[in-house]
Design brief:
- The protein is 79% helix and 1% strand.
- The protein is mainly alpha-helical.
- The protein has a single domain (12-192, 216-427), classed as Growth Hormone, Chain: A, CATH 1.20.1250.20.
Length: 433
């Protein structure tokens, strides 16, 4: 096994990261296109449908911590392979649902459980092969989250229009996801102890003073630092806002553009037949916002890694969180036109996607690579908690107010709190060997 690992080109774990994160993107980031067809088919409320997305985000996020611990102990390959099988089963079962509780169990719990096993190990593994480009390697490992949602938005909408139901989408996409994740697992192995890229030497100590030897933080030491929990709360804030938008942006566009269409016809929105060509066109146009958000969500994960390697994660954090707050304020009025909705979605996707490079890169920078699987696995559980809260809160506020104005303003306030947390956080002291 050792010789096999030594012979592995270091770009192969990046391929595993792309495939694994694309699988997770298909799972998570296009659910808003399912809200209206599931409401129409089963008569559920927005909050009831959104609860499925909230559950999958919660389970997915909470599973990354044990996945990271298992990856540190047994290696990433077996963890991701197991997740691939569980995720595929969950999606296949979702195509057979008849009640909302089956949706919560099959999609929320089972698929979310499998996805959580797939996501974290590549992020912890790839940077170990790229100590000279850690932030960039992290970005490449998570770029598929954006790619998956870029594909899933229009693909799922087209399939829903073709089949007249959302359920067959889960069956066909689930099979493809299982295959992708299995291939991803085969690309993942940890480098042997002491490995480094040919021709690369670790940076020399800064001039002045005697050279000092430092060691990585252990997991138990990491969780005792204030910095870790400030990062945790900031991650929750950014994820709360981003996942609220991702879980609802397509339905927001459908609601607002339908109001514009009804006003032009001089009728109430409810008077427009649900199977009218205009509403199908609006549904497809709203899915473009999902794809726009997803495309820049994917693109930024690579670009922000290269930028962060040059200017540092702190500058990138503060800029993206400030810009995201402004974008969230602009999101509600942007829904009346798919062009303006797509433009705002691009900004939101850019800022949201940057977190998934900046947070693991910062965690690695603060605490070292030895316990990165466990450290970032725990840090990422904040995303799961936010993923439960954000979409579900939006669904409740929408059912109460009939518009997305209140949900998006709440998201902007939470994002601004995240900015303040990142403004005060500083690196912890290094541990002397």
């Amino acid at each position: 096994m050792s010789s096999e690992v030594k012979a592995m080109p270091r770009w192969i774990p990046l391929v595993g990261g792309v495939l694994g994160s694309t699988t997770c993107g298909l799972l998570l980031y296009a659910f808003s296109v399912f809200i209206k067809p599931l409401r129409t088919q089963f008569g559920w409320t927005t909050a009831e449908v959104a609860l499925a997305y909230a559950i999958v985000c919660l389970v997915f996020g909470l599973m990354t911590f044990p996945a990271g611990r298992l990856s540190d102990k047994f290696g990433p390959r077996v963890v991701v392979f197991t997740g691939a099988i569980i995720l595929c089963i969950g999606f296949m079962l979702t195509s057979t649902i008849k009640t909302k509780y089956q949706l919560y169990l099959y999609y929320g719990l089972i698929a979310g459980f499998g996805g959580g096993l797939i996501y974290l190990p590549p992020i912890a593994t790839a940077p170990k092969w790229w100590p000279d480009r850690r932030a960039l390697a992290t970005g490449l490992s998570v770029v598929g989250l954006g790619l998956g949602s870029f594909i899933m938005g229009p693909l799922a909408t087209s399939m829903i229009n073709y089949f007249g139901s959302a359920l067959p989408v889960f069956k066909y996409v689930g099979a493809a996801m299982g295959i992708m994740a299995v291939i991803a697992s085969l690309c993942l192995s940890n480098p042997p102890a002491g490995w480094k890229p040919a021709g690369w030497t670790p940076p020399a100590p800064k001039e002045g003073g005697a050279p000092k030897s430092y060691r990585d933080y252990t997991f138990n030491e990491t969780i005792k630092t204030v910095q870790f929990w400030l990062l945790y709360l900031a991650y929750f804030a950014g994820s709360f806002a981003g996942l609220m938008v991702i879980g609802h942006i397509a339905f927001h566009g459908q609601l607002e553009m339908t109001k514009v269409l009804a006003a032009a016809k001089g009728v109430l929105p409810e008077a427009i037949p649900k199977d009218s060509p205009e509403l199908k066109t609006i549904a497809m146009q709203a899915s473009y916002a999902v794809s726009s958000l997803a495309a820049f969500n994917a693109l930024v994960r690579v670009l922000i890694g290269a930028i962060a390697d040059k200017v540092g994660t702190r500058v990138c954090f503060l800029f993206t969180f400030a810009l995201q707050t402004l974008a969230l304020i602009a999101l509600f009025p942007a829904g009346k036109s798919y062009i303006t909705l797509c433009l705002v979605a691009i900004v939101i996707g850019w800022n949201y996607g940057s977190m998934f490079t900046l947070f693991p890169a910062t965690c690695l920078q603060y605490y070292g690579p030895t316990a990165q699987g466990s450290n970032y696995g725990l840090l990422f559980t904040s995303w799961g908690l936010a993923g439960f809260a954000g979409p579900f809160v939006a669904g409740i506020l929408l059912d109460a107010t009939k518009t997305y104005l209140a949900p998006f303003l709440v998201a902007a306030v939470v994002e601004a709190i995240g900015f303040l947390l990142l403004l005060i956080v500083r690196p912890p002291e290094k541990k002397h060997a």
